[in-house]
Amino acid sequence: MIPRDPGLQAQRSALAWTRTGLSVLVNALLVLRGAAHGESRPLLLLGTGLLFAAAVIVAFGMQRCRHLQAIVPKAPGAGMMLTAVGVTWLACAGAVATVLP
Questions:
Q1: What is the pLDDT of residues 32-57, one digit of tens each?
Q2: Which of 6, 24, 30, 62 has its CA 20 to 30 A from that of 47?
Q3: CA dihedral angle for residue 86, residue 90, residue 93, residue 99, rounded to 10 degrees
């Protein structure tokens, strides 16, 4: 059986996971900066949670890249994708919360 050519879509998707994780990391750092200047405990907790989520997303993206290099790719589960979307929205909300009075 000849393996089908998946093209570059899977590789672009894996790189997108890493980019998403890095953008969540930047938002987490902004939230933590806002928490430090405003001395806000909820923002501190949000920023810490976003740091953890960013690390998980980047690790998943790196694992996905290694997986693609080893075997024929398989799509990530819906749960992981929904989690990444939720964390991204949470990061955006945290960044907005740091600029509101």
A1: 888 888 788 888 888 888 888 888 88
A2: 62
A3: -150
Q: Rounded CA gap, 76 and 98, in Å?
A: 32
Specify the amino acid at residue 5. Answer: D
**Rounded Cα gap, residues 42 and 17, in angstroms:** 27
Q: Are 62 and 18 in contact (CB under 8 A)?
A: yes
Task: Find the DSSP H helices in the chain.
Answer: 9-38, 41-70, 78-99
Q: In which residue are the tokens 């938002």 written?
A: 27
Residue with tokens 């600029």: 99
Alpha-carbon distances, residue 41 vs 34, 44, 89, 93 (angstroms): 11, 5, 20, 16
